[in-house]
Design brief:
The complex is a heterodimer of chains A (about 100) and B (about 240). Helices cover about 80% and strands about 0% of the residues of chain A. Chain A is mostly helical and about 100 residues long. In chain A, helix 1 runs antiparallel to helix 2. The radius of gyration of chain A is 17 Å and the shape is elongated. The model of chain A has no long low-confidence stretch (mean pLDDT about 85). Chain B is mainly α and about 240 residues long. Chain B has nine helices and two strands, in the order ααααααααββα. In chain B, helix 2 packs antiparallel against helix 3. The mean pLDDT of chain B is about 85. The chains are: A mainly alpha (about 100), B mainly alpha (about 240). At the A-B interface, helix 1, helix 2 and helix 3 of A face helix 1, helix 2, helix 3, helix 4 and helix 5 of B.
């Protein structure tokens, strides 16, 4: 099988994540799309590691997972805080923060 | 067609289907479950990519911890928080689709046009360290030790930040035991509040208790159900029987 297929799959998943970020309004779903993009990048790292026969890609993908976990914790805490003050998780309404 | 391509085409299709399901689902809970599905399939792909450690970590960290955290927050925010799929900016969805298609098209075309050399495989790299896990451990605790330490600091900072952000300030001072006791014995209700009415056709707590004079007691309901229009009428059962 062509080893580039994995990279193409990663690109497709990343693109779906981009579309989700651009279109969806619910902050949590936008966040899930970001997670999907991180996963796609991870898949590309792992596939590239095997294609080249080196292990550094795996370590980087592992570190990306750790950073994603930290990011999810802080991001969801922010969403909960915004929800508590605005009773809404819509990203349109959070635009009022600037006033 | 060897085993790897079978797994790739099945799991790859499932992963894309999960991602698409996440984007088009109206309800946030459905989106979360679709993403979990896509992530499990990506983990399967990791196993075929000779990365069993990352595949296991993917299942534990992503589908196990991250997506469950998402579900927890969804429960806080409200399970029925569904997105209005109406466009607030005119033509946004079309432009977004156009942008995503262009972006994806460029990336996919550029990858597809590169010449693929046969995959080198990880067997030689693993053998240099005496095994796959040993190899990853050697890299994480050797060459990438500094990044690893910085990541541990990041995780602690993130945990502290989440605690600070999610911390709820107390609006009123905590009631003392004395105050609680006074409220209990000197308030309007010396006895416990009446229990919700449990009827033949409705055993849910949103049914108020019937008082001897035929009226209903709002105090028998939990606070969440005391609002207008949320209370089931006890005599609706008698009316339905007629």
């Amino acid at each position: 099988m062509n080893p580039n297929n994995y990279l193409i799959l990663a690109a497709i998943l990343f693109t779906i994540g981009v579309y989700g970020v651009l279109v969806r309004r619910n902050a949590i779903i936008v966040f899930m799309s970001v997670e999907l993009m991180l996963n796609a990048a991870n898949l590309a790292f792992v596939a590239a590691a095997r294609n080249t026969g080196t292990l550094d890609g795996l370590v980087v993908a592992f570190f990306v997972m750790v950073v994603a976990a930290a990011e999810v914790v802080v991001g969801l805490a922010i969403i909960v805080t915004i929800f508590r003050t605005r009773r809404s998780a819509s990203i349109d309404e959070a635009s009022l923060m600037k006033y | 067609m060897n085993g790897e391509s079978v797994v790739f085409w099945v799991s790859g299709t499932f992963a894309v289907a999960g991602a698409l399901g996440m984007v088009v689902s109206k309800k946030a809970v459905h989106s979360a479950l679709w993403v979990a599905f896509a992530m499990i399939n990506i983990a399967v792909l990791y196993f075929t990519l000779e990365a069993p450690f990352l595949g296991t970590t993917q299942i534990i960290v992503y589908t196990g911890a991250v997506m469950m955290l998402f579900l927890f927050v969804l429960m806080i925010v409200g399970v029925d928080s569904s997105d209005s799929l109406l466009e607030t900016i005119k033509g946004q969805r079309l432009l977004a689709a156009l942008f995503a298609l262009t972006f994806g098209g460029v990336v996919v075309a550029s990858i597809a046009s590169t010449l693929a050399s046969p995959s080198a495989g990880l067997a030689i790299a693993n053998a240099g360290y005496g095994g796959h896990l040993q190899a990853i451990a050697f890299l994480v605790f050797g060459q990438y030790l500094f990044a690893f330490e910085v990541l541990s600091a990041l995780l602690i900072t993130a945990a502290l930040g989440a605690m600070v952000l999610a911390h709820n300030e107390r609006w009123a001072p905590r009631k003392t035991q004395d105050q609680l006791q006074r409220e209990r014995t000197m308030g309007n209700h010396v006895t416990p509040l009446p229990a919700p009415g449990v009827m033949a056709r409705n055993n849910s707590v949103d049914t108020p208790a019937l008082l001897p004079d035929g009226s209903t007691s709002i105090e028998s309901l939990p606070n969440a159900f005391r609002g207008e229009g949320k209370v089931a009428k006890p005599n609706s059962i008698e009316e339905a029987g007629k």
